[in-house]
Amino acid sequence: MTYNWQLPDWPKFQYDLKGIEDQLFIFAEKAGHISGLMQGLPNKTQEEAILDLMVFEAIKTSQIEGENLLRSDVMSSIRNNLGLNPTPEKVGDKKAQGVGQLMVEVRKNFAEPLSEAMLFNWHQILMGAFSKRIAVGQWRDHEDPMQIISGPIGREKVHFEAPPSASVKKEMDQFIAWFNATAPNGKTPIKSPVVRAAVAHIYFESIHPFEDGNGRIGRAISEKALSQGLGRPVIMSLSKAIEAKRRLYYDALGTAQTSNNVTDWIRYFVTTAVEAQEDAERTIGFILFKTKLFDRFRDQMNERQTKVVSRMLENGPSGFEGGMSARKYISITGASRATATRDLQQLVEMGVFEEIGEGRSTHYQIRADI
Question: What's the pTM?
Fold first, then answer.
């Protein structure tokens, strides 16, 4: 198979935006709408919305690579790195610590030009815990081909082979120059933030310059491109939208890496970015809902009830799988069955919960009409 970087027109990407003008307009419109929503929130609620979206991004960009991180670890890492914890919280998972710190770095320095030093720092932050296993904070330099492979040993399928390590330095110098030239204040700006982010992602992933961590850093580069184009840190989780349809992402990426005409890839990327914006709108709405709920019922709920309701709301608009039951309530609070039953009935009477089912199948959901 011939890959895009082996073609004579590499890396002169071509694309036709006809047919996706409406999606590009929707992206721009939603970007303004989300910004307006955020500006209308109280400062504390804004902070919560941004934190939730950053946590989703950190967790989902790792899940795309097959790593499952605890939300509590990721949240602690991000809060520590934003300086929101007077005393830094302990983060048990070094992977969660690294990806949380990376989210903050990308957001904090979005306006700065991309550089080799910046990418090396990102890689060190993300993969520093694995420095005994891989080369960290430097371009890959091994002689073996850098291949994306799936399947059992002996029957492997090669999905993509990146440029040899010997050419990575030259390729990345060219990529960094392209990224900065196409920025809003660059010599040859790409006007649409989402189009530039799409091309940046396929360009970086095709070079695959690091031994590991390329996917996560590639998505961080897309976030940087979006933020630069919008003139502010982007308010959405692109990785959450990608992870929801992970197979589609890898299929689109694999097809795009066989040609330098990236029209279909941009179409996929723009659609996914709009889906990420729609999810961000839902997340902001959900945080407003949480704020309203606690403002109304905080003084009526006891400590156990507050803990359970908070736990149910942790997962965002998707909610708490299977609802709340007496058994789950006991597990979370350590209460007796009698106390759990009484607490749950009180939450129903207050109007916080609605009761669903009967007998052993009885469970509770937070009312949507609070």
Answer: 0.88
